[in-house]
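Subject: design request, 252 residues
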């Protein structure tokens, strides 16, 4: 189990980092919205803490989509004026503020779904435009290792803290923007604010797969068991991810 925690999420980060290098911020952002961090966390919670706890965490994660997207919007606006550090600090403050209410007042799955979908509908309209041009830069091995280490540390932290903080807070922490933080900060430093804005804006389309995954876990886990639930969740996420990409390409 520990080996999976240390390898799976960093592997996703490596794939997305190379995608950003090869295909640019739009593809990287689309991939970043996929539940590549929250998905494994929910699986580990199901194996270690049981169906009831994980179901509540999945609903909490669904409601916390608003906070995760708010992080991206805040970073996108801040990075047009501030350096990467202060952009990240401001964005984390926004994430914490917007995630506080759903963590303190848990909501049913249908309400969490409505909040998430409304957020994803509105979000593309409030991002700044990515006017700046960016070049292609090499991805140093040390930078890639730092990205992978951040992902592994986040998974270990959330699964270790699950019992202490409770299911609702675990759902929020599971949507901590580790993927977006790592990608936005390193992209901002290497390629400038325009790249970061484009990546974060494109991540909104990927979050539909996140919603499909968390909703599947929330609705199915207690009745269908771990194996069937997570197979269905992954399948739903992949199908929604592909549909979102097709829509993005059609509207481009």
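Subject: RE: design request

Done. Sequence follows.
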């Amino acid at each position: 189990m520990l080996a999976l925690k240390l390898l799976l999420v960093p592997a996703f980060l490596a794939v997305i980092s190379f995608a950003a290098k090869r295909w640019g911020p739009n593809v990287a952002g689309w991939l970043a919205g996929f539940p590549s961090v929250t998905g494994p966390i929910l699986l580990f919670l199901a194996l270690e803490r049981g169906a009831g706890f994980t179901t509540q965490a999945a609903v909490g994660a669904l409601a916390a989509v608003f906070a995760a997207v708010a992080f991206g919007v805040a970073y996108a606006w801040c990075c047009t004026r501030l350096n990467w550090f202060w952009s990240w600090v401001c964005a984390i403050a926004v994430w914490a503020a917007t995630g506080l209410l759903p963590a303190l007042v848990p909501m049913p799955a249908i309400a969490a779904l409505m909040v998430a979908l409304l957020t994803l509908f509105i979000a593309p309209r409030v991002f700044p435009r990515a006017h700046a041009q960016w070049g292609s830069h090499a991805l140093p091995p040390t930078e890639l290792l730092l990205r992978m280490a951040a992902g592994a540390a986040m998974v270990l932290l959330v699964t270790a803290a699950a019992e202490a903080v409770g299911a609702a807070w675990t759902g929020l922490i599971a949507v901590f923007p580790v993927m977006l933080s790592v990608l936005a900060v390193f992209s901002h430093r290497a390629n400038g604010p325009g790249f970061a804005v484009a990546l974060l804006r494109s991540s909104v389309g990927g979050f539909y797969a996140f919603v499909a995954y968390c909703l599947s876990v929330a609705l199915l886990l207690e009745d269908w068991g771990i194996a069937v639930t997570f197979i269905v969740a992954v399948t739903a996420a992949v199908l929604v991810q592909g549909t979102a990409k097709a829509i993005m390409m059609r509207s481009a």
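Residues 2-128+138-251 form one domain.
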